[in-house]
Write a structure and sequence with these properties.
Layout lengths: L11 H6 L7 H18 L13 E6 L7 H14 L4 E5 L7 H5 L9 H5 L5 H4 L1 E2 L6 E4 L12 H13 L4 E5 L6 H8 L3 E6 L3 H14 L4 H4 L5 E9 L1 H5 L6 H8 L2 E7 L3 H7 L11 H13 L16 H6 L2
Parallel strand pairs: 1-5, 1-6, 2-4, 2-5, 6-7, 7-8
Antiparallel strand pairs: 3-4
The protein binds adenosine-5'-triphosphate and magnesium ion.
């Protein structure tokens, strides 16, 4: 015969409460259950120790897609590395890997950001060293379809580990929109580069991103501010003069941000991306030079804006419509 008291694996609480019919035991059971609950509530939860970030975390973000975030992340990361900084650029666009192509390292991707977070490889195994700069590394996005593959704790660990490893800047290339990937790309940021095209829809979506930067980031939760910079790209002075595009002043007034750079619309951007050579390295390109200026401003230098006025056409160009 088996009785409850003979059962070696029953704990006292379940023993008592498993006998609810007993008028004597019921209050005792309740008291024990309350005491147990109180003990659990009073026990200090394992405190989450916030890791100190030694690297400066920059997020390159926008509301609208396809405005030039990945182009900008690649150029800013290269520009900072060219200035001697140790830099890691991370692709947060789970499912749509792109940064490795623009950085020209797509054939060398073995492990990615999600593999690191899931413990399938070490951070060092996943970091791809740039061929041009010894102090520049790329962490590629995963091509998994699981949009929940990135976790906040996982991202925090990678960013903190990079800082402990001597990285000075971490550039986070955000996916478009305001979904989880975009949220995680901005959550730990110290600074944000908000990429905007001079058109109404891009500006309006960026305004929503500014709202998120002010409320849904670790800094915001601590009552601190993420330093925000405006980077206007695909800017065409001639079209602004014709009234087809918003001007720098218009965008600045709507968003209320300080301008870190204005990158002209330039065909060599696409050529550079296709050849895996970020446009900042194209010394002749106006877009490349404008990115170089933006990096200098990020590092605290004061530089005038360039390439923001339409070139005056010469007599022959006007005559022949060139
Ligand atoms: N200054 C520029 N002049 C001309 N084309 C540009 C410029 N900047 C970006 N582009 C082009 O715009 C397109 C989108 O750029 P990119 O992939 O960097 O945008 P994105 O914001 O990262 O897009 P997504 O939201 O899909 O991640 C590319 O074809 C790129 O070559
Ligand atoms: Mg992109």
């Amino acid at each position: 015969m088996t009785t409850e008291t003979e059962s070696p694996i029953m704990d006292p609480i379940s023993q008592v409460s498993s006998n609810p019919g007993s008028p004597v035991d019921a209050p005792v059971a309740e008291a024990i259950a309350h005491a147990a609950e109180a003990a659990v509530a009073a026990a200090p939860a394992a405190p989450k120790v916030e890791r100190k970030f030694l690297a400066e975390v920059l997020v390159v973000t926008s509301g609208k897609g396809g405005v030039g975030k990945t182009t900008t992340s690649a150029s800013i990361a290269c520009g900072l590395a060219r200035q001697g900084k140790k830099v890691c650029v991370i692709d947060f666009d789970v499912g749509l890997r792109n940064l490795d192509l623009i950085m020209g390292c797509e054939r060398r991707v073995v492990y990615d950001f999600v593999n690191v977070i899931h413990g399938e490889c070490t951070l060092r195994q996943a970091l791809i060293k740039d061929k041009r700069f010894d102090n520049l590394y790329v962490l590629a996005a995963s091509q998994t379809r699981d949009k929940d593959a990135l976790t906040k704790d996982g991202v925090e660990k990678v960013l903190a580990d990079l800082g402990d490893d001597g990285f000075q800047y971490i550039v986070c290339d955000s996916p478009a929109g305001i979904e989880k990937g975009a949220f995680l790309a901005m959550y730990f940021a110290d600074r944000a580069i908000v990429v905007v095209n001079p058109e109404v829809s891009s500006v309006r979506d960026s305004d929503r991103i500014l709202g998120l930067l002010a409320s849904k980031t670790r800094r915001a939760e601590k009552g601190q501010k993420v330093k925000e910079h405006l980077l206007l790209t695909r800017y065409s002075p001639a079209r602004v003069e014709k009234g087809d595009m918003l001007s720098i002043k218009d965008v600045q007034e709507i968003l209320g941000l300080e301008v870190i750079g204005v990158i002209p619309e330039a065909p060599e951007v696409l050529q550079s991306s296709n050849s895996g050579e970020p446009v900042i390295l194209a010394a002749e390109s106006h877009a490349g030079q404008a990115y170089t200026d933006a990096v200098a401003r990020l590092l605290g230098e004061k530089r005038e804006l360039r390439f923001t006025t339409a070139e005056k056409k010469g007599f022959f160009a006007k005559l022949f419509g060139g």
